């Protein structure tokens, strides 16, 4: 599972995700990418299940890069607990994703394989996504 080894603080504020991605919006490694179109918190479980879906579809062919990392602890209080008594304990880790952010990248696969793999991965994620292709200019 993806989670940080060490953090400065044990609990984090919820915060709001607004605006477009300032970084990580260009394809850096592969030829094909899965891009986020909505702001949302993506859980570590969802990232892992999307990664597994891609690898199963490609039968471990090609190279995959995961461009997001769950670094925000999300806390919850137990059910049937009265108000007050402090903040709940951290339950899971999440990644704050802004629109335009590249989530996954693929290389050394055909376009059909990339589309099939990314469409399966998109079904595991809680946001709308888009499959993009890196256009390399020929001089």
From TrEMBL:
The keyword rRNA-binding appears for this protein: yes
Gene3D superfamilies recorded: Ribosomal protein L10e/L16 (3.90.1170.10)
Keywords: Ribonucleoprotein, Ribosomal protein, RNA-binding, rRNA-binding, tRNA-binding
Gene Ontology BP annotations: translation
GO cellular component annotations of the record: cytosolic large ribosomal subunit
GO molecular function, one term: rRNA binding
Superkingdom classification of source: Bacteria
Any Pfam family the entry gives: Ribosomal_L16
Function: Binds 23S rRNA and is also seen to make contacts with the A and possibly P site tRNAs.
Assembly behavior: Part of the 50S ribosomal subunit.
Similarity remark: Belongs to the universal ribosomal protein uL16 family.
Protein name per its UniProtKB record: Large ribosomal subunit protein uL16
Organism expressing this protein natively: Candidatus Aquarickettsia rohweri
């Amino acid at each position: 599972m993806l989670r940080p080894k060490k953090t400065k603080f044990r609990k984090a504020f919820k915060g709001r995700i607004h605006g477009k991605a300032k970084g990580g919006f260009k394809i850096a490694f592969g030829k094909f990418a899965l891009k986020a179109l909505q702001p949302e918190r993506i859980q570590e479980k969802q990232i892992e299940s999307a990664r597994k879906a891609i690898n199963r579809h490609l039968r471990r062919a090609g190279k995959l890069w995961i461009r997001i990392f769950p670094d925000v602890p999300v806390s919850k209080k137990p059910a049937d607990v009265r108000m007050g008594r402090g903040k709940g304990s951290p339950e899971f880790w999440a990644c704050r994703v802004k629109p335009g952010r590249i989530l996954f990248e693929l290389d050394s696969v055909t376009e059909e394989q990339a589309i099939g793999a990314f469409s399966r991965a998109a079904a595991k994620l809680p946001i709308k996504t888009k499959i993009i292709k890196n256009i390399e200019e020929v001089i």
